[in-house]
Design brief:
Layout (H helix, E strand, L loop, with lengths): L7 H15 L10 H7 L2 E4 L1 H6 L5 H10 L6 E5 L4 E5 L5 H16 L6 E4 L5 E5 L2 H15 L2 H8 L5 H8 L3 H11 L1 H10 L1
Helix pairs in contact: 1-6, 2-5, 5-6, 8-9
Length: 194
Amino acid sequence: MVEFRRGFKTWSERAALGFRRDLQIEPSGALDPYGLAQHLNILVWTPHDVARLGDLAEVHLDQLLKHDPSSWSAVTLVLPLNKVIILNSTHAQVRQNSDLMHELAHLILEHKPARVDMTSKKLMILDTYDKLQEEEANWLGGALLVPRDALLYVLSRNRRNEHIASHFNVSTQMIKWRRQMTGVDKQLKRRRSG
């Protein structure tokens, strides 16, 4: 596990609450990643949207969505006039929500790619972030989707992981990860035993 800079986790939780406040969502409410993208003026597309613009040949669309859809989740393009996140529309909606929030986290954190791969014609085909940036985007994305205090609130009402996941529009794996990483179960146990 990587070591985050001091205060990063607290900042992430505050950012999650701040965006909810900006979008007039209750602190324990679900933050729609598409609504956050719109609030941040970031476009969200699927490969079909790119194909409709005439910028993606049918053979490439088939490769991305039919022949090899498990090889990618989301791509962020920073263009001269706007930012675009392209999501893999073959994935379950909860996965798309997580992928979108992860990509938004990179943009919110103003991460710069550690490496950019180019074609022979100098077209960018892939950028990658270093391990710390990926972990920061994972953490912030998780906090935006399921803030610690909101998780503690719904858990205190004895809700099961499936109900909590449905409430936040995420996977049960996301709920399990946030429970483990935030220590809310230990805090609830101390409350109940004290």
